[in-house]
Amino acid sequence: MTFQRGKFITFEGIDGAGKSTHIQFVSDCLRARGIDLVSSREPGGTPLGEKLRELVLHEPMHLETEALLMFASRREHVAQVIAPALARGAWVISDRFTDASFAYQGGGRGLDRAKLEALEQWVHPDLQPDLTFLFDVPLEVARARLDATRDLDKFEQEQADFFNATRNEYLRRAAQFPQRFRVIDSSRSIPEIREQLQAIVESLSA
Ligand SMILES: Nc1ncnc2c1ncn2[C@@H]1O[C@H](COP(=O)(O)OP(=O)(O)OP(=O)(O)O)[C@@H](O)[C@H]1O
Ligand SMILES: Cc1cn([C@H]2C[C@H](O)[C@@H](COP(=O)(O)O)O2)c(=O)[nH]c1=O
């Protein structure tokens, strides 16, 4: 028996844009449609990846070390979780993937894009998301949402210039890959965003 490869969906956006809020909703919509779904996150998603997550979110380190650890976590995630699930026909949702490295380490921190492209080619030469939701929101809105909720990690404590550059790189990539990106105006209310997400999910799983 041959299985059709499952679909790979990623959620992206600057910290506080609201992507995590909507992952559960989209997951519930897909499961209600009978789809076998694996939901995961980066950095993380495996026992080793979760240890790397603790390091990159809390320890100061060289920019290139940070990028390499993101891709080390990703290599493990692809090998242990994403590729096996897709191969057996399950769908995978990941809270962030390689677009985040281009946006944060590339846009935010200024790492040469060619180095990120080389890492991408090394770590997942044959894998790209089928669909990427980019939750786009002005920095001030994201910041207000974060400040209201929790202690901030290393990235969340970055300044406005960092997040503006990160957001701009996300938007640049959305324009570069329009066939897989859906830019969601995340400054709207949660019910309005859900309505749009539901329509996209229904068209995808029809
Ligand atoms: N559309 C919205 N309107 C108002 N509040 C929202 C909206 N979306 C999310 N929030 C709230 O903003 C806060 C941050 O949301 P969430 O954790 O989903 O962001 P995130 O993009 O996943 O952030 P991070 O990447 O840092 O984990 C939460 O308290 C959430 O309830
Ligand atoms: C995958 C990935 C993530 N990051 C950053 C982006 C966020 O600030 C954190 C993860 O936190 P979240 O609350 O789970 O979104 O990590 C990054 O800089 N580069 C990456 O490749």
UniProtKB/TrEMBL annotation:
The keyword Signal does not apply. ATP binds at G13, I14, D15, G16, A17, G18, K19, S20. It is an enzyme of class 2 (transferase). It catalyses: dTMP + ATP = dTDP + ADP. Keywords: ATP-binding, Kinase, Nucleotide biosynthesis, Nucleotide-binding, Transferase. Phosphorylation of dTMP to form dTDP in both de novo and salvage pathways of dTTP synthesis. One of its GO terms (biological process) is dUDP biosynthetic process. NCBIfam families: DTMP_kinase. Its EC number is 2.7.4.9. This is Thymidylate kinase. GO terms for cellular component: cytosol. Residues 11-196 form the Thymidylate kinase-like domain. It comes from Pseudoduganella rivuli. Belongs to the thymidylate kinase family. One of its GO terms (molecular function) is ATP binding.
